[in-house]
Amino acid sequence: MADELPFLDSPTYKWIFVGGKGGVGKTSTSCSIAVALAKKRNRVLLISTDPASNIGDSFQQHFTSEPTLVNGFTNLWAMEGLNETLDSQLQELISFPGIDEITVLASLFKSVEKDDFDVVIFDTAPTGHTMKLLKLPSTADSILNIIPSISSIAPMIMGGNADFGNQFNKFKVLLDDAQKRLTNPKECTFVCVLLPEFLPLYETERLVTFLFENNIESHCLVVNQVLQKENVGKCPICTKRYNSQQKYLHDIQELYGDEFRIVQVPIQEEEVKGINAIKHFSEFISPIISPQ
């Protein structure tokens, strides 16, 4: 039952992924989870795997591919723009299927391992890209083996000009460790974000199926931009949209109510930008953060 599921502030969680269809409020949700967990954990990292990352816009602060302390915090860091760090020679190989994701994934896990963070929140790209990213640790062998020049790629990924065999083995160990953590339900979980609409719900069903098929734990749903009945008034369009949302909210509850903690976030009057807006948003997702 949903009431027996763990909360996101569980001390065993090391990785928390946040994802869903584009435009459903993944970044606002990711930032809010990070801010909420910063009250509970000593060292928290928020990292974007989305090439079109917006966490800098959300916090109204510039972030780089290195962990940067978020203004106003002493224990919350953020980073984005990993694609920009790829070597120019490596960029020429991006046309090979999967190479961009592999290099970003390797850079991602290397960056995370540099510091001893209590928990890392991943603000992911839209669903399709994220599914490829999460699948990579288990499929990297076949992808890498099709590259004739693999001996020149691994050193660029791992850094330096060390022996290829040693570097490749380190790379493999990195991905193997990532796969073990991704599929450990005590250490990793995935938060699905959606809107009470057809397409976001459809993509959520696809995402949840993918997660379960790949043994990646997920038990939290965040439904954003929910209209409140008292705010509909006499607007015919608002009433129609409200009724439509209620139908999909019912469907969401029917589909996931027994196996997921579900929170509904009211539609916000303004964009979620700046720390005060993020803190306000985080109040709505508190039911999945902590029992207190």
UniProtKB/TrEMBL annotation:
State the UniProt keywords alphabetically. ATP-binding, Cytoplasm, Endoplasmic reticulum, Hydrolase, Nucleotide-binding, Transport
Q: Which GO terms describe its molecular function?
A: ATP binding; ATP hydrolysis activity
Which residues belong to any copy of the ArsA/GET3 Anion-transporting ATPase-like domain? 14-80, 87-285
- Domain of life, per the record? Eukaryota
The UniProt entry, under SUPFAM superfamilies, shows: P-loop containing nucleoside triphosphate hydrolases
Q: Does this entry carry the keyword ATP-binding?
A: yes
Q: Hydrolase among the record's keywords?
A: yes
A Gene Ontology CC term for this entry? GET complex
Q: Which GO terms describe its biological process?
A: tail-anchored membrane protein insertion into ER membrane
Q: Which Pfam families did the record assign?
A: ArsA_ATPase
Q: Which InterPro entries match?
A: ArsA/GET3_ATPase-like (IPR025723), ATPase_ArsA/GET3 (IPR016300), P-loop_NTPase (IPR027417)
Stored CDD domains? ArsA
UniProt-listed PANTHER family: ARSENICAL PUMP-DRIVING ATPASE ARSENITE-TRANSLOCATING ATPASE, ATPASE GET3
Its family remark reads: Belongs to the arsA ATPase family.
Q: What is this protein called?
A: ArsA/GET3 Anion-transporting ATPase-like domain-containing protein
- Write down the species: Trichomonas vaginalis (strain ATCC PRA-98 / G3)
Organism taxonomic ancestry = Eukaryota, Metamonada, Parabasalia, Trichomonadida, Trichomonadidae
